[in-house]
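[Meeting: bench + compute handoff]

Bench side (C.D.) handed over the final construct sequence. Compute side (W.E.) agreed to return the predicted structure before the next meeting so the bench team could plan truncations. Sequence as handed over:
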Amino acid sequence: MDDQLWERTLEAVKEQVSHRVFETWIEPLRPSGPLADGHLELLTGSSLSSNLVQSRYGSLLESCLSSEAGCRVRLSFRVDPDAVPEATDPDPADDTAPPTTSPIQGTGLDTRYRFETFVVGGCNQFVHAAAERVAELPAQGYNPLFIHGGVGLGKTHIMQAIGNRILQTRPDLKVLYISSEKFMTQLINSLRNQGIMAFKDKFRSVDVLLVDDIQFIAGKKATQEEFFHTFNALYEANRQIVLTSDSFPSEIEQLEERLRSRFGMGLVADIQPPELETRVAILKQKAAQENMDLQDDVAFFLAEAVRTNVRELEGALIRVSAHASLTGKPVTLGLVKESLRDLIKGQDRPVSIEGIQKTVCGYYKIRLADMLSAKRSRIFSHPRQVAMYLSKQLTRHSYPEIAHQFGGRDHTTVLYAVGSIDKKRAADSGLTEELETLTAMLRK
């Protein structure tokens, strides 16, 4: 491999991680050989190093290397058999690590989580606005800010975005992000090692405390007791507190009532599962970050196939990307179906006219009211005819029944629409692909 290419990559990565992380984990990496067929193997000093670098910094390394190389590059990691065993493998996010000049070091924050990379939609618009307000004016508005929602919906992302924005605009403030489980572990260790005063000082001296998955302290009497006093100390000192949970405060079982009341005394905001348009936007953004060419029909199909949460949606995209890279094939609808066949197998569901209307409106980006109206502009008439055609092809409804659900039209309108789409698709391969995409989306 060109040594200069690797050196340029290291310089690019160095700008995006803390000094300690770079020296400990990134700088010791060595290519095992040349860059070949878009793949590069990196040697690490231990299995722990290999696993940690791959999980935490693999995407960043691939992105920087691909940018410098001018092509998509995949990385793999292997332990160097000639490496001297490492004495320790300190956690780069360890809150007990010695402080450095980096504002991120010791905060527990991940710089990848920013407001700029958070896709906003109807499902999370309120939370996003509240989070930006807290980041702009910590402890002057919503305190505490309690964010709740299901798994993989972006709670950690938006919480860490608050911390990163505050550090960017107010580097004088002390920000700490931690999971509730890690809070509990550190409490136990401090009690065991007679370091409880240092523990108290650490958490009660911050300006902004961000605690993820607070529901896990439920049923832990000693942890709840200590967190209660930590919360009170920070709140009375006018310090910002942000919490996330999978449930509304009053719905967290085995949580002390005094904590429930305090968690709900500020602003409680929830994140809902993303709607179709937001899921498509998330996929488009993720694909852009990975330098992947993701066509609209593929994005819509993926967004329809994975509806649960953002984490699974991104996981499906990564799986598709890996399949395309390993086979050397472009990301097409056929490749998506092949790579996700076990995921989408058996997901077929009954198709309704209402479902067809909603899906077609989302695909063509028009309102349902416009589809059902008498507007004759092609921007509305084409999706309307497509929806009528699919209603006839995918349901058992008669022409009059379909016409009735399209604004009370006459059945001859549906007859004309079906005939028109049939005639056009014979000469228009683009329309055929649209119909196949919509059909696949509706059957998932």
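W.E. noted at the follow-up: The beta strands are 30-31, 39-44, 74-79, 145-149, 175-179, 208-212, 240-245, 267-271. C.D. will use this when planning the next construct.
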